[in-house]
Amino acid sequence: MRRELRGGLILLGTLLVVLGGCTRVEEMLSAIPALNFMRVSPALDPWEAPRPAPPGAVPVESPAERWEPVVERTEAALRAWGDTLANPLPMSEPVLDRGREVFANYCAVCHGPEGQGDGPLVGPGMFPFATNITLPATAERTDGYLYAVTRIGRGLMPAYQRVPPSDRWAVVNYMRQLQQGDAVAQETAGAAEQPAEQPEDNTVQGQD
Asked: Can you list the domains of the chain with their CATH numbers?
């Protein structure tokens, strides 16, 4: 009985990992209070006030960058809004350095330093899983979609609304670098598995 229970738990864990990139599964899991603590928390966010602003209060905007309006948290909104966004930042060294820094501060805790979904917050008794952002399911997404996910959130992932737009775009570029690095590593490993070609023997046999 104990062996069957252990096998069932292993199967359940495997299914969670395999289906981790499925939005529908993520939304189903986010409905479970024990799993959505990154989205819903009784604690106040650093930028939140303990009580709502009084009527007639003057709205405050960022002096440095324009903050986008609130977007509905649905897959349809992610696709619709993401399709209208174009990445304004080049794949330059300063942008990638900034993306690496922001990724380490906000993303690596779940997705891992290399984006493999193995961050320190993921594991038994903690967060159930995190998406491996180097897999084709994520690599094939548009830059706008990935930006929209960081802005709105998806499934169990919370929205990072207070991260400036330029930092979110820098993270998207850094994610692309991680994905390209993973693809290069796979190509290198595949080439190493190929048998080396034997040089042709062009020596002339001596005559008796």
From this structure: 2-40+71-191 (1.10.760.10)
Q: Which two tokens stand for residue 59?
A: 């709205």
For 54-99, the pLDDT digits (tens) are 777 776 555 556 667 677 888 888 888 888 899 999 999 999 999 9
At which residue do the structure tokens 């499925």 appear? 22
Phi, psi of 187 (to 5 degrees): -65, -40
Dihedral class, residue 57 (left if φ above 0, else alpha if ψ from -120 to 50, else beta)? beta
Look at residues 17, 3, 147 and name the one whose alpha carbon lies nearest to residue 89. 147
Write down the residue that tokens 């995190």 correspond to.
130
The b-or-e profile of 184-201 (16+ CB within 10 A means b, else e) is eeeeeeeeeeeeeeeeee
Is residue 188 very low, low, confident or very high in pLDDT (cuts 50, 70, 90)? very low
Q: What is the pTM of this model?
A: 0.62
Give the residue carrying structure tokens 């775009």: 169
Q: What average pLDDT does the chain have? A: 77
User: What residues have CB less than 8 Å from 157, skipping those under 6 apart?
Assistant: 26, 38, 39, 110, 131, 149
